From TrEMBL, chain A:
Keywords: 4Fe-4S, Iron, Iron-sulfur, Lyase, Metal-binding, S-adenosyl-L-methionine. PANTHER family: PQQA PEPTIDE CYCLASE, RADICAL SAM DOMAIN PROTEIN. This is Mycofactocin maturase MftC. The keyword S-adenosyl-L-methionine applies. Its EC number is 1.3.98.7, 4.1.99.26. It comes from Actinomycetospora cinnamomea.
Automatic annotation (TrEMBL), chain B:
InterPro entries: MftB. Pfam families: MftB_chaperone. This is Putative mycofactocin binding protein MftB. It comes from the Bacteria. Residues 1-21 are annotated as: Disordered.
Length: 408, 114
């Protein structure tokens, strides 16, 4: 059996485990996979997080990708980081850089087995801040400067490729080179708030080709998190597993301990269990029905007849799900255009039964932060009050007061 | 981890690590697993992770896992191959895989080398 077939059937423990530590975030990126913003009150406590780390150590999960939300806004983040490293669980964490001042950068530079990944979605403030919010470019660059000056070494710059930044790939590389960092580019997915910004931001078909050509020509030391395997159908296989790892070698633990098949699939349909249940994460990973199903034979539907099926394997499960395509259908960004055709058909049919699945959870800030330079939108009342203010705080409530109390 | 490492290891090789080169590997000397390396058993063999280089590689057969794990108990690599009952006609292939692991730093010569 080829190695990759073993992966298809699942491993004893995940290779790539993402752990979103908190839904709290100082930003409100329009493509946030986890619809983060507000902290969930059911968030795992420090002790519960440590118990998860103990379990990961027992399962020999060599490292975790920690994200959020913005993980560093958890007050126990640094404690958990040290705890994980002391328990043979290496940490790579993603951050927008908000807490990476000079002191933290120096602390990180002195810590072994930690990787830092700074999110940046535009090589210019204009492109980045459109997606990530005002000031976020400056915050990220400052964090990079701090890591560079502290001698951290090779951190990562993580870019979600969008319609607006696909022309900036060389510029991102230049920024990475300037700070001795490694560039990581990943696929934009219609998950979380990404579902709302998908139509505006996902790369056009021409741009998909442009991206593929760039990866083949210049992608040698660029990380991709295996996320562009759907582009392999253009010809040359891109480096990586070229396989959907959901529930097989990949999974996600969310801030409240729910375990999902992959970081892009925070939805009840892909929920395998919770780390708080008896048996913990180990039992979820090894025994959940959902994961057993994902590790079983998959139906590629019409795609199996396509000569490129071996290369793309039908693409990304989450991208199909959150655009309303069937899981055994083509990827919405199928390089042959099959996904676009299917989506167009669905729109023409206007099937009232068809509902594009919405994320099950939404922790978005209830108000979107506005650019402080803009005027505050508010309408002044021009209606005159119909009488002078009541001095009695119970004024107007007279009918509900006990008899015998005179009001007004 | 470098995701390219996960896809490495063309078919026919029994270790998905660095390209197997003979280098300084000497099967007549004692070896051990590097201190920064952790071995996780899997149905096909094992996953090997080097916490220092962040490199993930694969031991694609169970006998190879036995060889790697028992290197420290033998005065030389040949002894470990013998103990793991690797058939004579496969020895060459195993030595190549071990040379690759040595080159990647997964296994190291032992201090007690004569």
């Amino acid at each position: 059996m080829k190695l990759v077939e073993h992966f298809t059937h699942g491993l004893n423990s995940p290779i790539c485990l993402t752990w979103e530590l908190t839904y709290a975030c100082n930003l409100s990126c329009v493509h946030c996979l986890s619809s983060s913003g507000r902290r969930d009150p059911r968030e795992l406590s420090t002790e519960e997080c440590k118990a998860v780390i103990d379990e990961l150590q027992r399962m020999q999960v060599f490292y975790v990708n920690i994200g959020g939300g913005e993980p560093t806004v958890r007050s126990d983040f640094w404690e958990l980081l040290d705890y994980a490293i002391a328990h043979d669980v290496g940490v790579k964490f993603s951050t927008n850089g908000v807490k990476l001042d000079k002191a933290r950068a120096a602390q990180l530079a002195a810590t072994d087995y930690v990787d830092v990944q700074i999110s940046l979605d535009g090589a210019t403030a204009e492109v980045n801040d459109h997606v990530r919010g005002p000031g976020s470019y400056a915050t990220a660059i400052r964090a990079m400067e701090n890591l560079y000056e502290a001698g951290f070494g090779q951190f990562k710059i993580s870019v979600v490729v969008t319609r607006h930044n696909v022309d900036q790939l060389d510029d991102f590389k230049a920024i990475a080179d300037r700070y001795g960092a490694q560039l990581r580019i990943t696929r934009f997915r219609p998950s979380g708030r990404g579902a709302d910004s998908w139509d505006e931001l996902h790369p056009t078909r021409e741009q998909q080709r442009q991206l593929y050509d760039w990866l083949v020509a210049r992608g040698e030391d660029v990380l991709t998190g295996d996320s562009f395997f759907h582009l392999s159908a253009y010809g040359q296989e891109l480096p990586g597993l070229n396989l959907c790892g959901a529930g097989r070698v990949v999974c996600l633990i969310d801030p409240v301990g729910d375990v999902y098949a992959c970081p892009f699939a925070i939805h009840d349909q892909f929920l395998a269990g919770n780390v708080r249940s008896p048996g913990g994460f180990d039992t979820v990973w090894k025994s959940s029905e959902l994961f057993a199903e994902l590790r079983g034979p998959q139906s590629g539907g019409a795609c199996t007849k396509c000569s490129h099926y071996d290369a793309c394997q039908g693409g990304c499960m989450a991208a199909k799900f959150f655009t309303g395509l069937p899981l055994d259908g083509p990827d919405p960004e199928c390089v042959l255009g099959n996904g676009e055709r299917e989506l167009a058909k669905l729109q023409v049919d206007g099937d009232p039964q068809r509902v594009i699945p919405k994320p099950s959870l939404d922790h978005s800030h209830r108000t979107t932060p506005r650019d402080r330079r803009e005027p505050v939108p508010l309408t002044l009342s021009v209606r005159r009050p119909d009488r002078a203010c009541d001095s009695d705080p119970l004024g107007g409530e007279g009918t509900r007061l006990p008899a015998g109390i005179r009001v007004g | 981890m470098s995701t390219t490492a996960a896809g490495a290891g063309p078919q026919g090789q029994i270790s998905g690590s660095a390209p197997a080169g003979v280098g300084d590997f000497d099967a007549g000397r004692p070896y051990r697993i590097s201190g920064s390396v952790s071995v996780r058993p899997e149905s096909f063999g094992a996953l090997v992770y080097d916490f220092h280089t962040r490199r993930l590689s694969f031991l694609k057969t169970r006998p190879l896992v036995r060889v790697v794990e028992s290197l420290a108990d033998h005065p030389d690599v040949h002894g470990a191959l013998e103990a793991a009952e690797v058939p004579a006609h496969q020895r060459e292939q195993y030595l190549k895989a071990l040379a690759g692991l040595a080159q990647a730093g997964t296994i190291k010569p032992r201090e007690d080398a004569p």
